[in-house]
């Protein structure tokens, strides 16, 4: 699902990994497969995201800033060479 916020787009894979991990862990605890929609799994995922949400957002913002800086740096180099 595409959103208008690039940070949220980047967080989806991280959140999907958390859901997959917690689903697997709950299945291990119970000794049988569980669904991602299981209330225990959903509660654990929410706890993790609430605890780590700010860190996840900061990480993605740093990633986006580094990519933007690298992109701008590369596009500025030919212009600088021409100016010299």
Defining traits:
84 residues, mainly alpha
- State the low-pLDDT regions, or none: none
Strand content: under 5%
Assembly state: single chain
The end-to-end distance, rounded to whole angstroms, is 46 Å
Question: What number is the mean pLDDT?
Answer: 86
What is the count of β-strands?
A: 0
User: Radius of gyration in whole Å, from Cα?
Assistant: 20 Å
**Major β-sheet annotation:** none
Bulk shape:
elongated
String of helices and strands: HH
How many domains, in number, for the residues?
1
**Helix count?**
2
Approximate helicity band: over 70%
- Return the structural class: mainly alpha
What does this protein look like?
The mean pLDDT is 86. The protein is 83% helix and 0% strand. The protein has 84 residues and is mainly alpha-helical. The longest helix is centred in the C-terminal third of the chain and has 45 residues, at 39-83. The chain has helices spanning 6-30, 39-83. Helix 1 (6-30) packs antiparallel against helix 2 (39-83). It has one domain. The chain has two helices and no strands.
């Amino acid at each position: 699902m595409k959103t208008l916020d690039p940070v949220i787009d980047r967080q989806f894979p991280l959140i999907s990994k958390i859901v997959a991990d917690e689903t697997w862990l709950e299945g291990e605890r119970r000794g049988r497969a569980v669904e991602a929609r299981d209330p225990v799994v959903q509660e654990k995922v929410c706890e993790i995201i609430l605890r780590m949400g700010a860190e996840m957002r900061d990480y993605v913002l740093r990633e986006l800033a580094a990519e933007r800086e690298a992109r701008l740096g590369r596009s500025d180099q030919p212009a600088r060479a021409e100016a010299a």
